[in-house]
Amino acid sequence: MTEKEQQRIFKSWLNEHKALFFKVIRSYAFTDADRDDLFQEIAIQIWRSVPNFREESAVTTWIYRVALNTAIKWNRDEQKHQKGRQPFENVEHLLEQNETPVDERLEWMYGQIAQLDKIDRSLCLLLLDGFSYRKMSEILGISESNVGVKIHRIKKHLIEQSEEYDHHGI
Amino acid sequence: MITMEFEEMKKIWDEQNQEQLYAINEAALHKNIQSKKKRASRISNINDFGLIAVAFGTIGFLWFSDDSHNWYHYVITATLLLIVAYITFGRFRRKKKELSFDRTMLGELDHAISTVEYEAKRAKTMVWWFIVPLGVPTIAVMIWKVAPLWSWFVVIGSLILSYLVIQWDLNRCHLPKKRKLEALREKLTEETGTKQHH
User: How large is the ipTM?
Assistant: First the structure.
């Protein structure tokens, strides 16, 4: 694969699956600096992964796989010590926040996801994006029954927490 | 009390696909990817870099501090070059493995754990197959040749520095990273268990 072709595919993935990138980043990084850093790490891994992509799996599954594998291992403290990284204040920002209306219910959901550990956050994202237990088990490498146990616990947690949430318009 | 059902959550979740919370600075991203790509081919790992630098420094010291160029110069130089080749080969192999993207999350964690275990093991054994084989003949030769005091400082200092670099890398990077990865793996594979939040 030529570099031009790799770049073209990467760009199209980035444009078509922006929302997926943002969901992972919002679930694993909680400051502007961290979100920028994690976005860069994920984007680089996705870019590198392009030549390895085979049509056997859907692009969404592939991107989720690479993004989640990067996010669970990502650690801002470790990144800061890597040689050759510029101080954050000298780096051009990669993500600029758009002026979109804030959905409090969505904010609440991200707040709940943030309270889960890194593994459960992955499952929660896949669950909310409609992945089947089988697909989740393929992405995570654990049995479907184990996925089921974890999903049951996550759903229960979210529903219990929603009881304490002051609903607006629900 | 009203409870939000999961289906309602899913609906709220899906709505964000229509709104783009962020705009991507594509020019900056492209620049970063290119710069990272260039950096990837350089030696940036402190362990590899530190040990290779010590090896070349010692070779330089050996050849420039003594004009006699005896058999032990060649033996020590060859040993050090073999060690450099081994470090470089190991690094190349690790980097190649890093380019696998079709692993499951469990496979990715296992791979990361085995990589960090390899690094930790190498750091622990480095004392025995790098510092001792290098230090013992060097010191023996210095005793034999009645080396000047300054060269003792340089040699002993280099050996201590090598040891400290290895230990620092082990305690500061490898062992904490290994513990974190193992905790993640345990969390991923546990079948039951209580609700855990960070």
Answer: 0.82
